[in-house]
Every structure is written in structure tokens, then in C-alpha cells.
Amino acid sequence: MSGTHWGEIPKIPIDDFFIPDVTADIESSMSECCLSEYEGETENTYQEDITLPPMDPVMMYAIALHKYAANMTEMIKVAEVAIESKIIPPDTRPVIPKMPKIEFKHKPNPLNFIPPDMEQTNEDIKIPELSEVVVKKILAKCIATMFAHIGFESSFQSVLDILIDMLEKFYLKVCGRFVQALDEEESLKTGGFPNALERVLVESGLGGVKGLNDYYQCRVLKYVNVLQRRCKELDNYYSQLLAPRGPPQESAK
Questions:
Q1: Distances in Å between the alpha carbon of 81 and those of 70, 84, 89, 240?
Q2: Does the residue 170 lie in any domain?
Q3: Is residue 20 a part of any domain in this protein?
Q4: Angle between helices 196-203 and 208-216 (to 10 degrees)
Q5: From CA 180, how far away is CA 241, in angstroms rounded?
Q6: Which of 29, 40, 70, 149 has the maximum number of C-beta atoms within 10 A of its C-beta?
Q7: Are 62 and 227 within 8 A, CB to CB?
Q8: Which stretches of the chain are DSSP H helices?
Q9: Which tens digits make up the pLDDT trace of 177-212?
Q10: Is the residue at 32 inside a domain?
Q11: Burial group, residue 200, by CB count within 10 angstroms (0-12, 13-18, 19+)
């Protein structure tokens, strides 16, 4: 019984098929350089290098003290085991890091103000446009430095990614509040704070500029003094372990 049925695909004659020649594509795909870019088809892109300012030398000094304390702790453990085995440990301890010399951009003065020639206007400040990749790299460096400053030596990448996202959200929140505070100052002229930045810092729970300064004085400058004392105590204890000990003297009868 001849005829067509509903939904049946009509047959196309073989002569109507077009079979392209893909021999050249197959040969190129089998080449070792098949994934290389074709010449003349790439767009010339220019990426400006961004030079980050150096980290706080006091924080970097604290990280070096943490490293010294960790090394001395391991050396003390080895020395104690050697003394129990009646072996004199060698004096191979490292030198305690020295406080770096901090150069101020301006000479300190009694009122602690910035000279007029050191002040910058809004026209002198160039705000770079950062891509998402560059922002992630900068935040990762900041997170790693902050946690190394308090003694952490390693972490998982997943933990680092979570902290980077949290820090990014925090900065976006602070910047959003700062823009809002500037708009309110221009339109509503709401005061109570010396400037918009001070208002944002207080409302964000950072305690204003004074709160940031108090935090830096306590958690950075004074923290270095604590680490220096700790390193000195470890060095003195190791010196006591290396001190020669004579045979115990018998008590006089």
C-alpha cells in the first residue's frame, strides 16, 4: 500500500545531498598546533601594568618575627631532644630580624599636620579602572598579608576565596555609603560630622578616623613590641640550652 502517513519524513533523493569536503579541517585538527591562534585574526590588546604601593613595613616586620619565632620553636624542640640524648646541639640559630627604618614623607611636627606642599587635590588623584581579575588579585594579597600578620602560615584556597568575597562586599558597602553620604550633604545638607568619610566610618562601626588610628596603634605598633619580647625570650632560652653543664656537685656532708 503506497502513500504517505502523518508525521512521516519525506525521502530526499541522494543526488540532492551536499557533502562538504572536510579533508583539510581533519588534517589541521590532527596537527600539534591546531589550538594555536591563526595569524592575522587576533586583536591587539593593551593592558596597563598596575604597580601596587608597598605593604606597611611594620606589618611585614611582624610577619618576619612570626617566622623567626616559629623557626626558633622548632629548633628548641630539636635541642631538647638532643640534650636528652646527651648530644650538644649546634648553635645554628638565625638572627632576630631588626626593625626596618621607616621614612616619612614629611617631617614630624608638634601639631602633626601635613604641610601644604604635600597635600593633594582631587585633580591630582587619578582613579584607575580595575578589572575583576585585578581586584581579586589585590584583595587576595591583602587577605594573605593580614592573616600572616597575626601568625597564620597556610590556608585552603576555598577559605581564601570566601574571605576575598567578604572583603569585596565590605568595600562595596562602604563605598556605596560614602556616595550616599556625599549626595545627602549636597542635597539635604545633613551635618553632625566633619566630613562624609568620618560619617561613613562611624556608621560602619569602625569608630571614625580616631578608631582606625587606635586600632593601628594597638594591633600593629604595640603588637610588634609583644613579638619582639617573645623572640627575645626564645633566643635566651635557646642560649641556656646551649650553655655547657658540668656534672652535678655532691652536697657537702
A1: 17, 5, 9, 15
A2: yes
A3: no
A4: 70
A5: 62
A6: 149
A7: yes
A8: 23-29, 57-84, 132-149, 157-187, 196-203, 208-216, 222-242
A9: 988 888 887 776 656 778 888 888 888 888 888 899
A10: no
A11: buried
Q: Which positions ≥6 away from 244 have C-beta within 8 Å? A: 88
Report the number of distinct structural domains present in the chain.
1
The residue among 85 and 141 whose pLDDT is bigger is 141
Eight-state DSSP code of residue 103: P
Range of the domain at 210: 57-116+128-242
Cell 616619612 identifies what position? 104
| Structure-block grid coordinates of residue 87 | 648530644
Please choose, from the candidates 192, 231, 202, 252, the residue with its C-alpha nearest in 3D space to the C-alpha of residue 93: 231
- Burial zone of 9 (CB within 10 Å; 0-12 exposed, 13-18 middle, 19+ buried): exposed
Reported residue count of the chain is 253
List the grid coordinates of 96: 632576630
Neighbours of 195 (CB within 10 A): 13
